[in-house]
Amino acid sequence: MKEETRRVAERLGLKYTVLEKGTDPEAAEQAYFAAYAAGQREGFYPALLLLDEYALEWLEEMERDGYDREAVRTGCGDQGKELLEERFQEYTEDFGGEELADFMGQETEGEILDHFIGYCSFTDRALEEDTLLLEIPVKNPWEIIAYLPLGGWNECPSPEDMIAICKYWYEKYGAVPALFTHDVMEFYAPLGLNGVDSMEAAREHYAFCTDRIDQGTRTYKVSELAAGLQKSHVWYFWWD
User: Fold this and answer.
1) 198-201 long-range contacts, Cβ below 8 Å, gap at least 24?
2) Domain locations in the chain?
3) Average pLDDT for residues 221-233, to the nearest whole number?
4) pLDDT tens for residues 167-224?
């Protein structure tokens, strides 16, 4: 185990398993699913945390800024839907009617995601760095954010907003936060879209992370993302 890996694990104070750099991502994914099943019986939710060069710095910065885990966990509200609507309106407020219609699009094909990719190296597709498989002692999956408070910079929602959005998405879709790096977050969505219209879901994804369409699609249209989401069980977000 790398020294940095040990330091992050100790700082978090959670039960964990180390998945070492170079591990086959399929094996890492299976470990997550086994932990997910165990957590349903034992009262925890798992999360994968990639320990890239920024991970320890990110956690230490949150501590310096006086981050209050318990306040975020207990202060979660029910405004997730409203937050997403406000963000969508903000990001599209300069669009005219025709521009908005073009942005929404009519694409019928999109990338289907059924595997976690945020921890993979671009060169050999193995785990890019050591990754912690954490057992987080929370009753509700959105409370994972209180332990891994990604966000609050650039266009990434603050931890307080993110936890409300995650609560909304769990209640609507059954999606749970699953994988974290310093700038990537992936959800496991075992129910897919749970019967929700794919364009509605894609619109919410864009509101949560504009780069999901602006840098993550070929056509830069909501409909392309929507087409992929119809059959996806992993949701990927990256904030540049």
Assistant:
1) 198/226, 198/227, 198/229, 198/230, 199/104, 199/223, 199/226, 201/173, 201/226, 201/229
2) 3-238
3) 98
4) 999 999 999 999 999 899 999 999 999 999 999 999 999 999 999 999 999 999 999 9
Q: Which residues pair with 46 in a beta bridge?
A: 135
**Length in residues, the chain:** 240
Q: Does pLDDT of 63 surpass 80?
A: no
- DSSP letter for 124, please: T
Rounded Cα distance, 87 and 235, in Å: 19
CB 121 within 8 A of CB 127: yes
The sign of the dihedral angle between the CA atoms of 44, 136, 188, 155 is positive
Provide DSSP, 30-85: HHHHHHHHHHHHHT-EEEEEE--TTHHHHHHHHHHTT--HHHHHHT--S-HHHHHH
Radius of gyration for the chain, computed over Cα atoms and rounded to the nearest angstrom: 18
Residue 20 has pLDDT above 80, yes or no: yes
Average pLDDT, the chain: 94
CA distances from 183 to 50, 53, 72, 155, 177 (A): 10, 12, 20, 11, 14
The Cα-based distances of 187 to 28, 115, 166, 232 in angstroms read 15, 10, 9, 11
Flag whether pLDDT at 160 surpasses 80.
yes
Count CB neighbours of 83 within 10 A: 20
How much is the pLDDT for 55? 83
Give the span between the Cα atoms of 61 and 47, in whole angstroms: 20
User: What is the reported pLDDT for 7?
Assistant: 84
